[in-house]
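Entry for the shared binder. Reason: the reviewer on the internal report wants the predicted structure included alongside the sequence.
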Amino acid sequence: NSATDLNMSGASRVLLALGAIGSLFLAVFAVGSLREREPRAAKVAAALAAGIGALFVVLALLPFPASLVAAIGAAALSAAIFLLLVFGPNRAPTPGGRPSRRVDERDIMFARGRLQPGSPEYEQYYAMRPENRQGDDHTRSLPGLLSPVARLAEPLSFADADASFDLTEALRLEVNGDVADSREKRSADDFAAEAKRLARSFGAVDVGITAVQPYHVYTHIGRGTGEYGSEVELHHPWAVAFTVEMDHERVSHAPAAPVVEESARQYVEGATIGVVLAGWMRRLGYSARAHTDGNYRVIAPLVARDAGLGEIGRMGLLMTPRLGPRVRLGVVTTEMPLVADAAGDDPSVLDFCQRCKKCATNCPVGAIPDGDRTPVDDGLRWEIDSETCFRYWNVVGTDCATCMRVCPYSHPDNAAHNLVRGLIRRSGPARQSMLRLDDLFYGARPVPIDTIEG
């Protein structure tokens, strides 16, 4: 009898312990979700915490040997789930390769959107690309980004964003400058470490270094300083890429006005870091140029991917390990000797994006493909409809960012979400499971904060 009583007591304790662990984790997650202003996730987590706790209490009260069977089964199931999520098969798509051709900046929508009918630049571009004229003229007929008559116009936020963009534009004049006559002599490792420290001290989240490749560099100038249509002359061998974080709560308003306010603010932060970093390099005797919003000579996401900061996902944005696409990018190119980091090719991101499709499902104008990657240049990638995307910006007056808001990688940088990100990197079953859980907690079509609070 004493042995039977001991077995009953041990089985019950195991069941109660397993139930307590699961309930406690979900309860903590529920509280965290409330702090993140995610009421659906909080309610689901709280309900699951209560349900799991009650289930294990009932199992613990079963008569022996049923309680022992339940304890063994629960422990075995928990161990199996753990092993599957952590050590399950990790087959994933191959990286997308690298472009075989360079891009003319005049062809991107941001450059085309700036063209004024009747200007020499307008006539020059549409003589070269007549097929783009009708669609671009239609886009120009819409209210426009930050327009007071746009669908989602909000005067206070739009004024804030405009002021930030004005500051970024003023900093364009500082991206380049004179180089000191004498050179500081240090090792490439020392220069690389100090460049990263300096960028982080000004607010960069992640910093990486890569050798500049031909496909990083635009062929012709389409925006910013310099003469429109001139060939890009950039002979720097090295590039430092960095990210700045966009606030999670403000992004949670997307596509409403707070998101463009936050976007503009982080472009200022990125420009500030870039201008300071390039100025530091020039004062040490090495030419350097910052690449800032509206004044790039390089394609920032490609540079950042090769510098090890992340992978290019379904929505065409850089997917970073800690913040997903919820970042803005900056780049400084230089002749200062540096050391390259490993590229950010991440098959787990490609596999998750292949399964997820949340950005495509939630895109208000269907500009993000929901199918497989397609051949582009010498590799495979998802290619968004940039014309449709940009046209929507000109309707609503903001830079939308719905795809950024709904992306499962965009959740805050904290222990619970970083645990999920870590599991996603480890195994295919974890990626599938975490996607289903994201739908459960946040919905397949997550709603903006404004809708929740309204």
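Summary line for the report: The chain is about 50% helix and 10% strand.
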